[in-house]
Each structure stands twice: as structure tokens, then as C-alpha cells.
């Protein structure tokens, strides 16, 4: 059976060796000299060999045996390895290092997360972050495969995700996006029937209307564009109009406008999605707590 080497005993051994005496080691360890002697004897018993020669009464200096000389660098190596791991774990628990992996829908990724992450990492400069930007379905797959610590997405049918916890944080309304020169742009709000005579472009968020009468418009649509940059370009060019949640609306655009859809009135809830009964890494838990603290939560 291998000996159980305690780090404290190894430290005592190294200190006695380096300081050339039990008394000096005891002072460094804030222990009594008999306590240090007992610690060393117990270590020698575990190793099966003496580490120090019998002390010279005149000099009281502790001299290493050949076995002790051989063991000294090994002991230092064990202590250094222990201290590196202990320090890494301490930093990790304080989310000052480690790896945070998150995925988010583009709207929150571009509108909210940059400021959140910048503030969070101001106290965690050594933290590594892997960030994935995709639609809700893709985000959920990354959560399920544990590619990320958690995701930020919308659950289209929450009852179908019994394996996940959902913490709602943001919400936005669905509206019609069209050029400012479009005939619908001057409306304060719109009913889905007013869209029948216009070319509609389907996109990844159109599913938000699937349980409403308005979804029939998109079921008949000839066009689907998943990429937001391409979708914006096509709408700006006058190719058609679409519906988007407010957070997904490209607010930097000077040519497009957002008109709320009042009938049906659809509100999208976005939040943290994580697997049930699975512990997160300290950085992930810290960022989740930080996000909830800054953003709050919606009532379920």
C-alpha cells in the first residue's frame, strides 16, 4: 500500500531541510518544536527511511540522509504541484480564471451581452470565453450536447423541454419590419390581415407566430432568409417585409422601421437555458448570477 503523504508534513520536511533546524522550522510553521519533530517522524515512518541524520548536539543542525537528499526535490515537486492546483481552484471558484462557454441568439448577443461581459470580466481578466451566436434551435442543441455551460434563447414550447431549466430574463414584442418609405411604415400598429397584400420574407423567428392566424402568411411565403445581415439587406432593397422581435430589429439601420404587431400580439420571452440537475463550473455560475443580478428575472 502506498504511503499517504500529507502536504503539511512535506512542508515541514522542506523547511527543516532549508532552515537547517527544527527550531527554525517550528517558528516558520507557527508550531512547537516537538510538533515538528513528531510530524517528521510520522513522515519517515510512512516512507520507511530516515530523512535526517541524528542531530549533532553541539551544532543542533539538521543534516539530510542520502535518502533525504534524494527525496527533497521530490517533496518540493509535490508541494509545488499541490499549490498550483490549489491556486487554480481558488481562482476558478472566484471566477478569475477558467473557461466560460455560452451560446446566445443574435439579438441578445449583439444588444445586451457585450456590455454584460465587459463588466463581468473587469473583475475576471484571466477568464477565457467561448461565445457562440446562433438561432434558438441551435443554441438548445449546444446546451443539450453540453458544448456550452448554458444558452440564452427562446423556448418555443417550454412544456417539451422537461430536461431543461428556463430562467426568463428579457421579453420583446413581435413587429413588422419594413423600409421607412413603405406604405405600412406610418402605422402605429398592424393587424396580420394588413400584411396579406405584401411580399413576406420568412426568417428564423417566424415560428413565434406559428400558433396564431398570422402564421398562415408565412406558410405560403416563397422566401426564407436565416442570416440577419442578408435579411436586412433584402428588406432595405425593397424586396419584401418581415416580422421580427424588437431585440432582433437592426436599430442601427437608418432606412428601416419597426411597427408593432397588435393582432395577434405576440411577446417573446428570452432567458437562460441550462440542463436540469447538472452543476455548472464556477465561472458559468458566477456569470449566470451576475446576469440575473443586473437584468432581473421575469415572472413565469
Q: What do these coordinates show?
A:
α8 links the parallel β6 and β7. The chain folds into three domains: 7-93, Arc Repressor Mutant, subunit A; 99-170 and 270-295, Periplasmic binding protein-like II (D-Maltodextrin-Binding Protein, domain 2), CATH 3.40.190; 171-268, Periplasmic binding protein-like II (D-Maltodextrin-Binding Protein, domain 2, 3-Layer(aba) Sandwich), CATH 3.40.190.10. α1 crosses α2 (22-29) and α2 crosses α3 (33-47). With 300 residues, it is an alpha/beta fold. The strands form two sheets. Strands 1, 2, 3, 4, 5, 8, 9 and 10 form an eight-stranded mixed β-sheet that branches. The chain has a two-stranded parallel sheet with strand order 6-7. Helix content is 39%, strand content 20%. The longest helix has 28 residues, at 66-93. The protein has helices at residues 7-19, 22-29, 33-47, 66-93, 106-111, 113-121, 136-144, 215-219, 228-236, 282-295, and strands at residues 99-104, 128-133, 150-153, 164-179, 190-191, 201-202, 223-224, 242-245, 256-263, 267-275. It is rod-shaped, with a radius of gyration of 32 Å. The protein is built from ten helices and ten strands.
